[in-house]
Amino acid sequence: DQVANQIAAGEVVERPASVVKELLENSVDAGATRIRIEVEGGGRKLIRITDNGCGMGRDDAMLAFERHATSKLRSADDLLHISTLGFRGEALPSIASVARVELDTRAAEDEVGTRIEIVGGKMTRVEDAGAPVGTSIAIRDLFFNVPARKKFLKSEPTELSHVAALVTHYALAHPEKHFELHTSTNALLVAPTVRDASERLFQVLGQDISRDMLPCAAEIDFARAGLPEPPPWKRDADYTPPEPGFLRVRGFVSKPELQKLNRGSIYVFVNGRQVRDRLILHALTEAYRNILPPTSFPVVLLFLEMPAAEVDVNVHPAKTEVRFRQSSFVHDFVRDAVRNTVMKARP
Ligand code: ADP
Ligand code: MG
């Protein structure tokens, strides 16, 4: 089973930023409103995430490190209607199999908390601990027991920049939460709760960028979208018509005068989940065609929402790829929403 966990770790845990992503998503799923992240050595030496979420009782905390122990799915049918970010129950056992982990957690209804230590997948300690309500999890010496993987980690600044980009992503998506990211010497991000996405944009990306951003919003009722139904002989056995509900796009897109030379400034979320999706990137490239020179990129923060059944988040364990059931419709809708916004603002 340890082997299965390490194999899964190969898929889930690529680098410190992927650990941070899994832990951040767990904190969000736990309903946390304050999330603090500390890293040392770009996350190679230490990643610690402390949240004020629901916490775990001792049994749940021990179970959390068992493979496929998720508290978030009860039936196979739930897979079609995933509303939490996590659902595989793979992240914690995978991470724990390739690092040293210390977990301190307490549920609101418990008087004492629990401390669990795991080294390379083996639970070495379980004891009472005077923890505040919520969860703090420290991941030390990532890949200490898998030298071949450890070798592939990049320099401290590179790994740190991936971690910072990821935390920025989630901070942008959750203006109602307080986020902090610290190294042992610097506070890289301190973002107290703000009222809305545009205040968060200003807070996180600064005035230079936020003043050149345009609000972008569009929605359409899937049922009225006139989506062509495939004829019966072309339907898969499991074909179902589009789920009733809305496709919504909202967020901010940059004016033509704001141009970036890398793609790092594109932040896209689908149903609250950070994605790096080719289809959406392509739609954005099309939206800015002949508006931006081909060598430069816009700054984009977009939230897509659609009925859960319209998007398959189950494509890959790291979950940054998704598959849309109505992919070309979603592509064109995003392209048009962004292009209309940018064109309207042109002098
Ligand atoms: P998943 O998120 O897919 O369910 P994980 O391995 O990431 O699987 O986590 C396993 C379980 O541990 C979760 O289902 C949840 O019950 C619990 N858990 C993990 N992190 C936290 C946290 N920060 N606060 C509360 N519960 C947590
Ligand atoms: Mg998870």
From TrEMBL:
Residues 201-343 form the DNA mismatch repair protein S5 domain. It comes from the Bacteria. The keyword Nuclease applies. GO terms for molecular function: endonuclease activity. This protein is involved in the repair of mismatches in DNA. It is required for dam-dependent methyl-directed DNA mismatch repair. May act as a 'molecular matchmaker', a protein that promotes the formation of a stable complex between two or more DNA-binding proteins in an ATP-dependent manner without itself being part of a final effector complex. Belongs to the DNA mismatch repair MutL/HexB family. This is DNA mismatch repair protein MutL.
